[in-house]
Amino acid sequence: MNGTLFQQILDPANRADPYPLYAEMRRTPVSRQDDGSYVVSTHAELYRLLHDPRISSEDLPDPPLFRWTGHPLSDLFVRPVRSRITARHRPFIFRDPPDHDLLRRQVMREFAPARVRAMHRKAEQLTHALLDGLRDRTDLDLVDDFSYPLPVTVICELLGVPREDEPRFQGWATQLATALEPDRRTDRENAGRTEEAFTAITDYLQGLIKEKRRAPQDDLLSGLAAEHDGERMNDHDLVATAVLLLVAGHETTVNLITNGVLTLLRFPEHLERLRREPEVAPRLIEELLRYEPPVHYRTRLARADIAIGGTTIPEGAPVVLLLASGSRDPLRFADPDRFVPDRANNQHFGFGGSLHYCVGAPLARIEAEVALVALAQRLQAPRLLADPPPYRPGASLRGPRHLLLAIDAVTPSASAELAA
Amino acid sequence: MTAPTEAPRQIVIVGASLAGLSAAHALRDVGYEGRIVLIGDENEPPYDRPPLSKQVLRGLYSAETSLPQRADLNATFRLGVGALGLDTLAHRIYLSDGTQIVYDRLLIATGTRARPWPNGAEAASSNVYTLRGHADAEHLARGLAGKPRRVLIIGGGFIGCEIASCCRDLGLDVTLAVRGALPLVHALGSVTAAFMRDVIRDRGVDLRLETEVARFQPDADSRVVAAILRNGQRIEADCVVAALGALRNTEWLAGAGLAVSPKGVRVDTHCRVLTATRAVVPDVFAAGDIAHWPSAIYGNRLLAVEHWGNAVAQAETAARNMVAGEAGLIPYDHLPDFWSQQFGLNIKLVGLPTGANQFAVVQGSLRDRRFIGVYGAQGRTVAAVSVDSARWLPAYRAAVAEATPFPPIVGALDQADIRPQPLARAVS
Lengths: 420, 428
Known about the structure:
- The complex is a heterodimer.
- The model of chain A has no long low-confidence stretch (mean pLDDT 90).
- Chain A is of the alpha+beta class.
- Chain A is globular.
- Chain A has 19 helices and twelve strands.
- Chain A has one domain: CATH 1.10.630.10.
- By secondary structure, chain B is α/β, with parallel strands linked by helices.
- Chain B has three domains: 10-113 and 247-328, FAD/NAD(P)-binding domain; 116-244, 3-Layer(bba) Sandwich (FAD/NAD(P)-binding domain); 344-422, Enolase-like, domain 1.
- Helix content of chain B is 19%, strand content 31%.
- In chain B, strands 3-2-1-7-21-20 form a six-stranded mixed β-sheet, with helices on one face.
- The mean pLDDT of chain B is 94.
- The chains are: A alpha+beta, B alpha/beta.
- Chain A binds chain B through residues 47-54, 56, 96-98, 303-305, 307-308, 315, 344, 354-355, and chain B through 29, 363, 372, 391-395, 398, 404, 409-415.
- Chain B: InterPro entries: FAD-oxidoreductase/Apoptosis, FAD/NAD-bd_sf, FAD/NAD-binding_dom, FAD/NAD-linked_Rdtase_dimer_sf, Reductase_C.
- Chain B: Keywords: FAD, Flavoprotein, Oxidoreductase.
């Protein structure tokens, strides 16, 4: 098959518009690449594989060889032991049942509806505070000024990370998110940086967890750290889970919000409609998750031969689930390349599917709704200064690195007292 | 007969439940702008039935289970009006209020009703129930709320078992009388049915197999106080539910010259009804429980199913074909599926175990009460059942649809050695 097509998708030059490549990809629903991996690009085949018990999420490569630091104790003992622990206690996004189910269940319990609802108010306050801070500006970088800080603060608040520690997370999270980009995670230099970031965030979180156990608060990390029905998540799994939630909170919602603004500025009639009828937001955001999703693909491993789409994925083969392509499959969606905010029956893969369906989906929906409605209502005459904007490197966690806007003004908040 | 050449301007749907409403929605989805008239003999707008034998009986929510209607449906509902007769030559339907209505296209979606207890006088007792509609569910829920000392349920199908499960959730003593050797055996086959027998007993139901109720024993007020079995035994019960399956509402079609049987109205692969001489009636369609249809996936075997998913999918195909010309007709190739919720278990089945002679557990185990089982016939996979494992079912659905060699999906997570076993009693 065409081994270069997926490489073209990975190529940063195609980041701004990968969709024509996806369309080409879909001509072979399950397509073997030169490196022996298989890319799945059509809705029916993706849906089926997301629910296939022969598909494994335990597809991270073994920890890479280290760069020597020259400290024998560290190089020969501490780091190998750490690395084995890390390999055994991967976050549940990289685990299969039954371990996955046990960990996920505990996280879901802490993602209780009441706690997520409480974050709704928080997200509103933060949104308006961020916009109030832009009051005197006539141009802004939506990413740095808004879409990045909002979800970062929300996820830190939700987990119970002290506000003053937030800045330290940004670098760690960006580095750790490269674990979701297969072309980057096999790069040894990058792997070394990931290890360093992981060590640093682990040390930090272990301290924080100790603190949460000593003096529990009403936050997610305290809840995860506490004992429930005589069971307690072990520290290694707890750290791995916290890292996952932090990274996911840092690196995905930012794309949803930025892609949302970019899309609405490309189709100003929908921006105007959202401004006038904020109640269209929930369906508009579902369409956004279909049309410009924050996560474009995820990888898996075939545990056994799988006959699908006229071919057989052999046991052991890496599998790329090109979710964003499935969400644009004309066999599933009428007029798939059109942005239709009130699209009916919109079963997109924006949050993945099946057992690894995004745990944070309810939170992401709330953040996107609060953010997009507020931006639509408070940014006066927003214009794109660069289209397409520059993109972040990742082909999976795909989104603009900057989104430069010119505006006439920021309307003072009707609910300014909220932010006070 | 050839397809009608005129585009329809008035489409009449007889039966205002899931299939009827789904068809109306589908007509608007495909851009039909003419008149839609829905005729329903119940007095209320379309509602969902699956919750009636589950959440509603347990009092979890009221019997308010209306189906959502899109705002721009723009259909005329004639509720509380039944159809009494059909004249396909005059394109005319005779209604119970003495009026008539003509159609350009007709969809027959009159579904089924509960098979009543055969002895009419006994069936009329105030504490003898059946369950099909809202009114039935409200009536039975009130009966159960009165804390009967023992509920006797007659019939070991899904409705009977779900009602028994609700009764246990309500803390009521229950006897479930099943005529055959196992409950649910017709739908699930012997292995899963034997599994369910054990679950049902573990959950405290007095399950009586190979048991037939001969008659009821009334008190002075004609309320049932006990049932007498064929073998002479007596079961005291002050609440009786006859869960004897369904009868298809075809009576109004008598005299219309259509191919009607106890299995419903024969349709072709495009959901168009057939005459008694098997000619296609090009402007009359049927969908849902009432349709007796050829399944392309199962070699055009005629199926009559009472599944929620079939009602929706078949109505959609029928609706599309009602407004398509002869060249635009699409075939109906639905893979049957259904689900049940009972005794704390989620049970889902895809495909048709009918005729299967092999069964294998391919994930999980019966002991853990969490498994996927597959059914084989002539070496092919024909159906799959999941018990608290529905997340994997789509992969098995594909295996069934493609008639993958039995057993399918080797190398799955939590898969022990696959040991196919014969189905002791081939499902008929």
